[in-house]
Amino acid sequence: MKVLGLEFAPLFISTRRRLQTVAVMQAVATFLCGGVLCTALLISLLFTRLWPLVMIYAVWYIYDRNTPHSGGRRLQAMRNSKLWTYFRDFFPLKLVKTCDLDPNKNYLFACHPHGVLCVSHFGNFATEATGFSKLFPGIDPHLIVLDGHFQFPLYRDYIMGYGICGCNKNSLEYILKSKGQGNAACIAVGGALEALEAHPAHFTLNLAHKKGFIKSAIRTGASIVPVFSFGENEVYTQVSNPVGSRVRRLQTFLTTYLGFSPPLFHGRGVFNYTFGFLPYRRPITTVVGEPLEVKQNPDPSNEEINELHIRYVSALQNLFEANKKEFGVSEFHHLKFI
């Protein structure tokens, strides 16, 4: 039913679909507002009889400040929650492996594309919704996100429960070297600027000059695994922002100074299919490619980094080309690197 240009959802739909919508709604709301709301809650408690609890937490916050960069604090019950099966089925989201991974090795999963909100990367690697542990037994995934997420009290503890860790050299090298074997650091290497390229049927990746993850892999000897999510860019519509436009110049400026990108986007709403902040119900399939073996060198040269970067880009292109037809991508579409 359409009213004033909005297409409203049917009044009577299955309970399961309602639960799927609720699961995605809470995930998006938590990502967009969780940090601010948790901070506001603690500030408000300072003016109540519960203020001693805030002081105790402040001491804990300082004591625990390095945990996001030393492997995090995974709670398997949170990853296994039934909530995430509803989240998975909303799109639906699917994880596909192309080969087995040796649990006696460590891996750096380089995930593409970033998308607007990294929907597939969260669902696949921060939860067990798509069966990561069954597909890759003996491998513990750690989703890597911007350090800014861990500045918010309470929220930081919540996301660490999913095995999420901070994004810096020390964090990557702890997971891939100091934590033992059978670990995977999963990072959307395109970062904030790639989110600005997240348009449906666009496959532009911010990878041409991204070599920090290559250097970390060489320093730790971790194998690099190309990962591509077909459909990640389809679940939101972003305002047109071609390079050189006023919108893009403003977004790039804000990204430089804020550390995260401010894409102007919309999806569907809770009760309508036309406008809102929920993603559209569109399938996402994440394909995990074959690992590239890496020879460890604590102090890699530029030549080593560049050579592995070329190998990686080629492997990613091959993964995309080999799978694109099966997942609805036109033969005329190819990856573009900026």
TrEMBL record:
Record-given protein name: Acyltransferase
Keyword Membrane in record: yes
EC numbers: 2.3.1.-
Protein family: Belongs to the diacylglycerol acyltransferase family.
CDD domains assigned to the protein according to its UniProt record, in alphabetical order: LPLAT_MGAT-like
GO CC terms of this entry: endoplasmic reticulum membrane
A single GO BP: triglyceride biosynthetic process
Compartments, record wording: Endoplasmic reticulum membrane
Membrane topology designation: Multi-pass membrane protein
Organism: Bugula neritina
